[in-house]
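Quick entry between incubations.
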Amino acid sequence: MTAAIALRNATPDDPGLVVRSRWAITDTLTITRRNLLVWTRVPAYLVFTVIQPVMFVLMFRYVFGGAIHVSGNRPYVDFLMPGILGQTAAFATFGTAIALAQELKKGVIDRLRSMPMARSAVLAGRLVADTGRMLVTVLIVVGVGYAVGFRFTNGAGPAVLMIVLAMVFGLSICLIAAFTGLAIGDEESVQAFGLIWLFPVTFLSSAFVPISSMPGWLQAFANNQPVTYVINTMRALAIGGPIEANLWKSVAWLAGIFIVFGPLAVRAYKRAS
Amino acid sequence: MSQDSSGPAILVEGLTKAFGEVHALRGIDLAVPRGTVLGVLGPNGAGKTTAVRILTTLLRPDKGRAVVEGRDVVREAAAVRRLIGLSGQSAAIQEELTGRENLEIVGRLFHLSRAEARRRAVELLAQFDLTDAAGRAAKNFSGGMQRRLDLAASLVGRPKVLFLDEPTTGLDPRSRLGMWDIIRSLVADGTTTLLTTQYLDEADELADEIVVIDHGLVIAAGTAEELKSRVGGDVLEFTVPDRSRISDAVAAVASVGEGEPHADKETGVVNVGVGGRGSDALIEAVRALDEVGVRTQGLALRRPSLDDVFLALTGHAAEDEKALANGRRGRKRASKDTVKDAS
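Done. Structure below.
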């Protein structure tokens, strides 16, 4: 017994906090790289994450845009683009939920959890990769926006902040998606569930039309939901306008989502089976 | 590397696990000596996968203790993960990535350097006859190749103890034989292996020792030969072409056997353990069947198979149990009930 304990102390059994922290980072990067690699291998992912928002831009700019009247002397495309970018970030999280549900079902997560890698890395690597993917998509959509007449008219600093806010918003939805993906664990159900809540919250907001054009009962919802706060803030950053009230409400909502769904996603990952 | 080199590689004591009302494990004991293969045999829903998930640190037991290479799977889970490999029921590989990429990523997650991970991947691809396919996306692999890649991934970290959860489920017979060869060669290298299966012949082929699990309990343990002897020596078996005469046939041979005869109403196959009475029993059976005028086909004595063991231990065939466990016991299955009561 004594010999056993002595031997055990001799083996580097517990790698210690420093090594473990280093592994947490390198493992997260490995998983991130893996996820991005997968993303580039599936043409359908590229099509859905890039083509879909681009089509939205073109459709709203040229098909619906003529019938939508926004206040002020601004072209509709300036009103539209911050909304589309917010929606693009939110919709990019479909990939998060679907990928996690798939990995869960196929036993990939079991395999990873049975390995001596950092347990946080699967979720962290997923979020990092999906945020990167989201950024690429958002930048492409900004480019398309510029091609159809959109301009940031409030300066470069606020424009960058707008993109940062879109990312933080997307990441918060990512946490919800990660939680639902792991909790539901079936890719088709996850996809259906994503549509059921993401479509209404993005469309019943200030993203595409002025809320004042909606019926009163709908305005009550649209005016007081987080997507509207975030999009209004993004719009103010992009093209100017009052910002304070929307900014702090956005921050409060996003912080709330992180606080609630971060731990929920981690718990769902730990319990995943 | 591990302390306590005298004890078994896997030790399980009084393990229980319930999921709500479902008692997946109801107190299991196992001991697997180093360098041996334990076959855990049981129908679907018997608790095999639950046991593997606990031993591979994926699930916490409700009660009891499980130790792998001297490390407790709950208190020393991180240490256990460095010592084990797991290959599950489905191929847990990233289909969009190539065979080489899959293995390299696993290597990196085992904290091998980039060069080491690459070397290990090349080595394993060669060992598993996947070198030619190494650069292709795994989704273009055949089912057998995907399983081989999955198994290769479980070996990247050079595990001391390997867990194979139904490694051949869903494979065609040829891939299955190929998988058996691979598992045999791994075992020959001295890797302690715990293998679950619902195929009786698979356990017979690959395992040194077998435990039979049913409803979360170990109902028998021993070598394949020992389990076969539990049936009581030889088995007398014949087919009754006229299904309506099955119960007559069962009644006729009831006094011949040492145990109760079993009959499969669907195939008309009747068998009965006859112990060491061999040819005497054979002659008696022919006379008895002739007296009641039942025609038979292929009347013969044979060595018992593990199917007979399962039947003798549980009173029902393994397949019947599977249908029961899935909760969709159709008409076809119901008619296949074994006749325990002769009259």
